[in-house]
């Protein structure tokens, strides 16, 4: 057989490799420019505590998470049970960022499903969401003791996410010194 | 061929309706200067909507696209330059937000890839054409005996 007869096969093999790799990529998960950067600051009213405000500075010195959620977001409902179990088991302080939601709707949602959050920042206009580069609610940020974002989870938290990523990361970050 | 032309026409027609819808979704805005209006228009057509990834924020009806358009408007109107707005968006959403990616080490293959492939293709074509020419020269198309045969056949026809 002539060597040149193998060229189409070789081209096909290269194509298969490229397409195969392409199948495994997740174009929805855009790498976040925030990893390794200080958490963006904000001061927002607390949803559940009238007259109080919450800021990331209040949580400095501990490993904490910021979870972007809204009552209109179906995937948030899906992750709520998993996330709550994780938060309660590990006693992690979590700020819920209530993103572009009506206060009344959010309160009803939490009353029905339970409230695992230590604080809830009420981001009615979604400005803070923009500062955090939020584009697919729910999103979860893991922040270390120094206030540096170490991980961003785009989309709902599943059991596997907790076991494979969030839990090991939180345990590791807790060992780190300030 | 006719079928091909027909489907092409359909594509063009549908593409047309799509842009009309997108423009209908946009807000009516008033600008303080022609310059800021131009800035706004280029920017919203250069920034990707991350919710619907193959649309710009100017052409998308998604909630996030609306918010980002408002942000661009606000920044442009407050006298911010094009670069300021681009930096602001990249800091929050990453390089992916740019429809026209910046020229960096990371994106070098993206920019130079097509040129490299073009030269590679040209080189292959040149090589192939040359090898064709050489083989033609090396073996004459007809042997002397065949030439003689042809000549005889032609003569026979004349006669």
From TrEMBL, chain A:
Domain Thioredoxin: from-to ranges: 33-175
InterPro entries on file: Periplasmic_diS_OxRdtase_DsbE, Redoxin, Thioredoxin-like_sf, Thioredoxin_domain, Thioredoxin_ResA/DsbE_sf
Membrane topology label: Single-pass membrane protein
Localization per record: Cell inner membrane
GO cellular component, one term: outer membrane-bounded periplasmic space
Keyword Disulfide bond: yes
PROSITE patterns tied to this protein: THIOREDOXIN_2
Any one Pfam family match given in the protein's UniProt record, by short name: Redoxin
Domain of life: Bacteria
Keywords, comma-separated and alphabetical: Cytochrome c-type biogenesis, Disulfide bond, Redox-active center
GO biological process: cytochrome complex assembly
GO terms for MF: disulfide oxidoreductase activity
Key word Cell membrane present: no
Main location: membrane
Family of this protein: Belongs to the thioredoxin family. DsbE subfamily.
Protein name (Swiss-Prot/TrEMBL): DsbE family thiol:disulfide interchange protein
TrEMBL record, chain B:
Gene3D superfamilies: Cytochrome C biogenesis protein
Transmembrane segments: 108-129
InterPro entries in the cross-refs: C-type_cytochrome_biogenesis, CcmH/CycL/Ccl2/NrfF_N, CcmH/CycL/NrfF/Ccl2_sf
Molecular-function GO term, any one: metal ion binding
Keyword Transmembrane on entry: yes
Occurrences of domain CcmH/CycL/Ccl2/NrfF N-terminal (ranges): 15-154
Entry protein name: Cytochrome c-type biogenesis protein
Organism: Leucothrix arctica
């Amino acid at each position: 057989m002539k060597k040149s007869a193998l060229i189409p096969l070789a081209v096909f093999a290269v194509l298969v490799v490229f397409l195969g790799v392409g199948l495994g990529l997740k174009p929805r998960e855009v790498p976040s420019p925030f990893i390794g950067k200080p958490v963006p600051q904000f001061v927002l009213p607390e949803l559940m505590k009238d007259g109080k405000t919450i800021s990331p500075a209040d949580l400095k010195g501990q490993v904490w998470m910021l979870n972007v959620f809204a009552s209109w977001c179906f995937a948030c409902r899906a992750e709520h049970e998993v996330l709550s179990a994780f938060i309660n088991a590990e006693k992690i302080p979590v700020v819920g960022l209530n993103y572009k939601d009506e206060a009344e709707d959010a309160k009803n949602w939490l009353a029905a499903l339970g409230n695992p959050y230590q604080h809830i920042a009420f981001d009615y206009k979604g400005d803070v969401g923009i500062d955090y580069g939020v584009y697919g609610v729910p999103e979860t940020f893991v922040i270390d003791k120094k206030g540096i974002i170490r991980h961003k989870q785009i989309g709902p938290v599943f059991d596997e996410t907790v076991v494979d990523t969030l839990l090991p990361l939180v345990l590791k970050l807790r060992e780190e010194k300030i | 061929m006719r079928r091909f032309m027909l489907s092409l026409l359909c594509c063009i027609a549908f593409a047309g309706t799509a842009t009309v819808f997108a423009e209908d979704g946009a807000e009516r805005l008033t600008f303080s200067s022609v310059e800021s209006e131009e800035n706004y228009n280029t920017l919203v057509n250069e920034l990707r909507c991350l919710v619907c990834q193959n649309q710009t924020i100017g052409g998308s009806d998604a909630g996030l696209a609306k918010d980002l358009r408002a942000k661009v408007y606000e920044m442009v109107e407050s006298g911010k330059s094009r670069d300021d707005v681009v930096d602001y968006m990249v800091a929050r959403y990453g390089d992916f937000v740019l429809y026209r990616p910046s020229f960096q080490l990371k994106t070098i293959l993206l920019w130079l890839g097509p040129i490299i492939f073009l030269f590679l293709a040209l080189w292959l074509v040149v090589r192939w054409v040359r090898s064709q020419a050489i083989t033609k020269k090396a073996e004459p198309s007809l042997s002397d005996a065949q030439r003689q045969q042809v000549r005889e056949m032609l003569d026979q026809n004349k006669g």
